[in-house]
């Protein structure tokens, strides 16, 4: 049974930075594409960033391009999200998720991700 555990959330000022981590256990981490999603209060979950299993490809939502960076360290089964130039609209619960394939899907949907973490809250004040 795969388990994912996010950490690193908290409060930040607009323009500041935070780094999120997601540690995976119970599976072969390097076999799977990973992604970050976020869900603001009373909003639908939205895609943030994705990375292929072998770190050869990344993809970002337009709203975070140039500000966020996704990476992974397969040696320690950990996914990261470096968030810079934070904005109040980045406030949300952030989730890491594991895909059913090692490639990033052509169309990213929550249903394509088999395992999810519990989420970590990010709050950005103006």
* Beta-strand percent range: over 45%
Which ranges are low-confidence, i.e. pLDDT below 50, for 5 or more consecutive residues?
none
Characterize the biggest β-sheet: 7 strands, mixed
Helical amount: under 10%
Number of H- or I-type helical stretches: 0
- Could you tell me the radius of gyration in angstroms? 13 Å
Distance between the termini: 40 Å
> Could you give the order of the helices and strands?
EEEEEEEEEEE
The total strand number stands at 11
What quaternary form is this? single chain
What order do the helices and strands come in, and which of them pair?
Layout (H helix, E strand, L loop, with lengths): L2 E5 L2 E4 L4 E8 L8 E6 L6 E6 L6 E3 L7 E6 L4 E6 L8 E8 L13 E4 L3 E6 L1
Parallel strand pairs: 2-11
Antiparallel strand pairs: 1-3, 3-8, 4-5, 4-9, 5-6, 7-8, 9-10, 9-11
Give the gist of this structure:
By secondary structure, the protein is mostly beta strands. It has strands at about 5, 10-15, 20-25, 35-40, 45-50, 60, 70-75, 80-85, 90-100, 115, 120-125.
Structural write-up:
This protein is mostly beta strands and about 130 residues long. It is about 0% helix and about 50% strand. It is built from no helices and eleven strands. It has strands at about 5, 10-15, 20-25, 35-40, 45-50, 60, 70-75, 80-85, 90-100, 115, 120-125. The strands form two sheets. Strands 2, 4, 5, 6, 9, 10 and 11 form a seven-stranded mixed β-sheet that branches. The chain has a four-stranded antiparallel β-sheet with strand order 1-3-8-7, with no helix packed on it. β7 (about 70-75) and β8 form a beta hairpin. The protein is globular and about 40 Å long.
């Amino acid at each position: 049974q795969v388990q994912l555990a996010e950490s690193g959330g908290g409060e930040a000022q607009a323009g500041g930075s935070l780094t999120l981590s997601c540690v995976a256990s119970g599976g072969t981490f390097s076999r799977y594409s990973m992604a970050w999603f976020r869900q603001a209060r009373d909003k639908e979950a939205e895609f943030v960033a994705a990375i292929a299993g072998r770190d050869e490809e990344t993809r970002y939502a337009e709203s975070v391009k140039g500000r966020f960076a996704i990476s992974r360290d397969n040696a320690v089964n950990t996914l990261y999200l470096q968030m810079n130039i934070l904005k109040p609209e980045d406030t949300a619960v952030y989730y890491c998720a594991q895909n059913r394939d090692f490639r990033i899907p052509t169309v990213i949907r929550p249903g394509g991700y088999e395992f999810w973490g519990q989420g970590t809250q990010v709050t950005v004040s103006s």
